């Protein structure tokens, strides 16, 4: 597999923007795994402090527990009267300065999906971030191409390898883009050719779904 400098430069540009997105971290998990993860909120809304995080849980997730955050209130709603399956989570009543980041934790059981014929399954967690002035809607789900991307959980066969592959791809793309800025050469990068082959389907899925947010 050969990557041109132009392609890697474009990839690096995409990677440079996702650090500003609300993401699930960690975001890779294996079928049936009990996962402790968090929604990472990296900033406010156009310079305004965050006061509420409202999350819609994908219906495939049937076992989930939201965890409290100091100085914030927490409420959940359920899909039916059995109160067995969480439908939404709201953290509210706190105040996160626009320049600060905060993690909103939860634990869940990953659906036991069949990956025998596919490399991964992506689940989406639309989030509405309310601030003192304005909101940020992290609710875009493919095939939609407009709006801010919803945080994702990627269910893969090997979560450790998937995370390592994404980090390696990010590092390679960033290094290649830096090199491209100092030369007009269109030659390919040998570093990309040496990447572990197992990362390619995961990387492709991550680009299509969430633009490599980590």
Overview of this structure, please?
With 214 residues, the chain is an alpha+beta fold. The chain has a single domain, classed as Uncharacterised protein YcnI-like PF07987, DUF1775 (Immunoglobulin-like). It is built from 4 helices and 12 strands. It has a 5-stranded antiparallel β-sheet, with no helix packed on it. A 4-stranded antiparallel β-sheet has the order 1-3-8-5, with no helix packed on it. A 3-stranded mixed β-sheet has the order 2-12-9. β6 (73-78) and β7 (86-96) form a beta hairpin. α1 (5-18) packs across α2 and α2 (159-180) crosses α4. It is globular and about 45 Å long. The chain starts with a helix and ends with a helix.
Compact description:
The chain has 214 residues and is α+β, with helices and mostly antiparallel strands.
Key words describing this protein structure:
214 residues; alpha+beta; Immunoglobulin-like; 4-stranded antiparallel β-sheet; disordered N terminus; disordered C terminus; YncI copper-binding domain-containing protein; signal; YcnI-like_sf; YcnI-copper_dom
Radius of gyration: 18 Å
Mean pLDDT level: 80
For the biggest β-sheet, the strand order reads 6-7-4-10-11
Helix/strand-derived category reads alpha+beta
Biggest β-sheet, characterized? 5 strands, antiparallel
Instruction: Indicate the CATH architecture.
Output: Sandwich
Fourth-level CATH superfamily:
Uncharacterised protein YcnI-like PF07987, DUF1775
CATH topology: Immunoglobulin-like
End-to-end CA span: 24 Å
Please, how many helices? 4
What fraction of residues sit in β-strands?
A: 25-35%
In total, how many beta strands? 12
- Describe the global form: globular
Q: Which consecutive residue ranges, at least 5 long each, have pLDDT under 50?
A: 1-18, 181-214
H-E string: HEEEEEEEEEEEEHHH
CATH class: Mainly Beta
Helical fraction = 10-25%
């Amino acid at each position: 597999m050969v990557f041109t400098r132009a392609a890697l430069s474009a990839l690096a540009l995409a990677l440079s923007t996702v650090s500003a997105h609300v993401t699930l971290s960690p975001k890779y998990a294996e079928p049936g795994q009990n996962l402790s993860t968090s929604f990472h909120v990296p900033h406010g809304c156009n310079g305004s402090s965050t006061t509420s995080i409202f999350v819609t849980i994908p219906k495939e997730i049937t076992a989930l527990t939201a965890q409290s955050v100091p100085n914030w209130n927490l409420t959940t709603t359920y899909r039916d009267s059995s109160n067995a399956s969480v439908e939404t989570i709201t953290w509210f009543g706190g105040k996160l300065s626009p320049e600060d980041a905060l993690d909103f934790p939860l634990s869940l059981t990953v659906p036991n999906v069949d990956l025998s014929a596919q490399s991964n399954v992506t689940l989406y967690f639309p989030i509405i971030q309310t601030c003192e002035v304005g909101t940020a809607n992290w609710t875009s789900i493919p095939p939609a191409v407009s709006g801010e991307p919803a945080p994702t959980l990627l269910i893969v066969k090997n979560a450790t390898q998937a995370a390592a592959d994404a980090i390696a791809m990010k590092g390679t793309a960033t290094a290649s883009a830096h090199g491209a800025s100092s030369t007009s050469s269109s030659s390919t990068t040998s570093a990309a050719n040496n990447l572990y082959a197992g990362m390619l389907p995961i990387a492709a899925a991550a680009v299509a779904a969430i633009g490599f947010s980590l």
